[in-house]
Amino acid sequence: MKSISVLFLFCVAVLASLALAEVPSQNELNDAAKKTQTPESAIADTKIQTLETGNAKLNQLKVNLNTAPAEDLEKLPGIGKAKAKAIVAGRPYSKIEDVMKVKGIKQSVFNKLKNQISVD
Questions:
Q1: Cis status of the peptide bond prior to 69, with omega within 30 of 0
Q2: 16 lies in a domain?
Q3: Is residue 69 in a domain?
Q4: Long-range contacts of range 73-78, CB-CB < 8 Å, 24 or more positions apart?
Q5: Could you report the per-residue pLDDT of 74-107, keeping only the tens digit for each?
Q6: Cα angle for residues 109, 110, 112 (degrees, 5° grid)
Q7: What is the span of the domain harbouring residue 114?
Q8: Taking the model in full, what pTM does it have?
Q9: Can you tell me the distance from the alpha carbon of 53 to that of 119, in angstroms, rounded to the nearest whole number?
Q10: Domain holding 79: CATH number?
Q11: Which residues pair with 16 in a beta bridge?
């Protein structure tokens, strides 16, 4: 019976010490995770940041159908001087697909330039 009491008191002491132990905050856990970051995960984080930056730059490079001068529109694939003037005359556009309302710009031409245009 004495050994059971000693064992019981030992268990109570262990549980009490665990209850008093300090639990790390989320920030502390995040800091610890950063310190143990593997080279592979650091590379993955860098690739994600690069991709996000690249997408932002790509959007800046798009030609806005509603604001671009005809000279910029002419640089698009399948768009010459006459189609560029027709695009300007057909403004405003609410979506990029609206450019297919311009005479001479059908689905095949649109497919060539859809990744290079915006209406923002």
A1: no
A2: no
A3: yes
A4: 76/113, 76/116, 76/117, 77/109, 77/112, 77/113, 77/116, 78/105, 78/108, 78/109, 78/112, 78/113
A5: 999 999 999 999 999 999 999 999 999 999 999 9
A6: 65
A7: 64-118
A8: 0.52
A9: 21
A10: 1.10.150.320
A11: none
